Amino acid sequence: MKRRLAFLMVFVLLSILAGCGRFEDLGGTYKLQCDPNSYVVVSDTMNRIIVRGHVVKATSNSGFILLKQIPIDSICECNIECFQKMNSYDKRSYRRCKEAIQRRRDQLFWIIDKTQDLSFNPETKTYSNVFGPYREEEYRSKRIELNVPDELVLEDE
Questions:
Q1: Phi, psi at 52, each rounded to 5°
Q2: Residue 14 lies in a domain
C-alpha cells in the first residue's frame, strides 16, 4: 500500500512538473493552461478556472473563445476514485486514461463572449459570459444567437 501511495505521489509530482507550466494566451484575460490534475482548463488572469475539464481544442478572436471539451470525469480510466475502487492504479493507468480520452466520441462545446464582463453568479455557480456545455446542435444554435463570426471555427468544424 505504501508503495502504491509513493508511486501515486511521484506520478502527480512529475505530471505537475512536466505539463502544468505551459499555457496558451486566448486573448483578453483568458488563457488555456494545465491545472494541478493535468487537465487542460480555461482560466483568467486571477487564475480562476472558468471552464474545468479536459479541453481538447480552442480558438479565439477579439470577441469570442470557442472550446471543445471531453468530459473526462465520466471516464473510469481517468478517475482516481475509480482506480481506488478497482484497486488497479499502476504505471499503465496514465496511458489507459489517454487512450480512453482518444476513444471518446461525446464532446461538449463552450463559447466565451469576451466582449461581456466576467462576473460570477454564486446562486447558479456560472459566469455571465460563459455559455455551455452544449452538445453540437445546441452549440451551433448558440453561435448564431451570439453572432459568433463564421470565420471563427474549431479545427474540425
A1: -100, 145
A2: no
82 exposure class (CB count in 10 Å sphere: 0-12, 13-18, 19+): middle
pTM above 0.85, yes or no: no
- The residue among 73 and 34 whose pLDDT is bigger is 34
Per-residue pLDDT at 141: 97
CA distance 47 to 43: 5
The mean pLDDT value of the chain amounts to 76
Residue 117, amino acid = D
For the CA atoms of 42, 48, 51, 57, what is the dihedral angle to 10 degrees?
Answer: 0
Q: Which three cell numbers stand for residue 16?
A: 505537475
Residue 67: give the domain boundaries. Answer: 22-71+106-145
Which three three-digit cell numbers place residue 1? 500500500
What gap in Å lies between CA 113 and CA 117, rounded to an integer? 9
